[in-house]
Amino acid sequence: MFDLINGLPVHPLVVHAVVVLLPLACLGTIALALRPAWRQRYGVLVVACAAASTALTPVATSSGEALERHVGDPGVHAQLGDQLIWFAVPLLVLSAAMVWLDRRRSSDRDGRTGSVGVVRVVSVLALVAALATSVQVYRVGDSGARAVWGDQVASGK
């Protein structure tokens, strides 16, 4: 299904969306964790980036498997790419929880719901998830670039 569009492989097209949106979600989550005042204004945008990149990650891996049938095994890149969803999902869940808890706490005038401590714990977990996801995105991208370009650049073709 995710093989070709107009004769071109889907994988590079979808991967570029993930490569842009997932790091943006990571940077946004880090910013929101460190600057709580920004959560009201930018929280929905950060969660939307995380949601879109999480939804596109399985499309990228499926299209990569389809591309693999045409060009051969990309080695470690495929293994790292398959692991990326396990970083994207926690980032999405934790960034959404951080924003939701913060909004819920700020909308409750009596202070009965959601303590500041819970929001802080979730923010720290979201920060850790964003840092881990950033590292994994780098690892996947680096291995993919090496799989595609490594031999050509090294040999001077």
Automatic annotation (TrEMBL):
Keywords: Membrane, Transmembrane, Transmembrane helix. The keyword Mitochondrion does not apply. Residues 7-154 form the DUF2231 domain. The chain crosses the membrane at residues 13-35, 42-64, 84-101, 113-132. InterPro entries: DUF2231_TM (IPR019251). This is DUF2231 domain-containing protein. The lineage of its organism: Bacteria, Bacillati, Actinomycetota, Actinomycetes, Propionibacteriales.
